[in-house]
């Protein structure tokens, strides 16, 4: 519709000008518009136009990050900040993600730096309940040895204003870096 409206709104600029001075473009929307079609739209000489898709899905995706999260206690939230958002179905809850009812694809990756040896575990919680699909562990043999963890899967949210968080599910405090969390509404 943008190019159609663009053509209608700008047709008077084209009527008295040489069409050869204008270049053909799609103005970023996929519909090609040129002075000839603008002139045709303005004079109603175009009889049919494709109807815009009425069931076009709105893209809802949000990207959360935290370059450095230090001294995250056992069973504590790893805070993330909203970095990029498309749509309005996914927003920040402050330290996590605020979601409305629906199904979401959730993907995270991070680098852990444990302060002690043992098993380090990271996962996702929805309203304080651990989502088993996302729990990932690493056996650490020396304090300070970096490790990388990631997971991806679907989460179904059954009540509006639910909070999704990334959590240190291990028994010890840890440092994290390069924390990335992507949430995309699937349905």
Helix count equals 2
**Hey, roughly how much beta strand do the residues contain?**
over 45%
In total, how many beta strands? 11
* Number of domains as seen in the coordinates: 2
The top level CATH class name of the largest domain: Mainly Beta
| Protein structure class | mainly beta
Q: Which stretches of 5+ consecutive residues score pLDDT under 50?
A: 1-52
Distance between the termini: 26 Å
> Which bin fits the share of residues in helices?
10-25%
Order of helices and strands: HHEEEEEEEEEEE
Gyration radius, rounded: 25 Å
Using the 3D structure, state the CATH architecture of the largest domain: Sandwich
> Averaged pLDDT, please?
79
Shape: elongated
Q: What kind of sheet is the major sheet?
A: 6 strands, antiparallel
- CATH topology annotation of the largest domain: Jelly Rolls
What can you see in these coordinates?
This protein has 187 residues and is mainly beta. It folds into 2 domains: 2-42, no CATH class; 61-185, Jelly Rolls. It has 2 helices and 11 strands, in the order ααβββββββββββ. α1 crosses α2. The longest helix has 14 residues, at 2-15. The chain is elongated, with a radius of gyration of 25 Å.
Tag the structure with descriptive keywords.
single chain; 11 strands; mainly beta; elongated; 2 helices; 2 domains; Jelly Rolls
Mind sketching the topology for me?
Elements: H1 2-15, H2 35-42, E1 61-72, E2 76-77, E3 81-86, E4 90-92, E5 97-99, E6 102-114, E7 118-126, E8 129-140, E9 147-157, E10 162-168, E11 174-185
Antiparallel strand pairs: 1-3, 1-11, 2-10, 4-5, 5-10, 6-9, 6-11, 7-8, 7-10
């Amino acid at each position: 519709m943008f190019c159609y409206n663009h053509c209608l709104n700008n047709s008077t600029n084209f009527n008295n000008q040489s069409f050869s001075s204008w270049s053909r473009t799609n103005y970023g929307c996929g519909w090609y518009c040129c002075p000839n079609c603008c002139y045709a739209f303005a004079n109603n000489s175009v009889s049919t136009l494709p109807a815009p898709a009425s069931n076009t899905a709105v893209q809802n995706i949000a990207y959360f990050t935290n370059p450095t999260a230090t001294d995250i206690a056992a069973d504590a939230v790893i805070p993330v900040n909203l970095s990029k958002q498309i749509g309005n179905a996914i927003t920040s809850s402050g330290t996590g993600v605020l979601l409305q009812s629906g199904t979401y694809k959730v993907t995270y990756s991070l680098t852990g730096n444990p302060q002690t040896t043992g098993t380090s575990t990271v996962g996702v919680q929805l309203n304080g309940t651990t989502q088993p699909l996302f729990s990932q562990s690493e056996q650490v043999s020396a304090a300070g040895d970096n490790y990388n963890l990631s997971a991806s899967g679907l989460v179904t949210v059954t009540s509006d204003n639910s909070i999704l968080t990334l959590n240190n599910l291990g028994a010890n405090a840890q440092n994290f870096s390069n924390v990335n969390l992507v949430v995309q509404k699937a349905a």
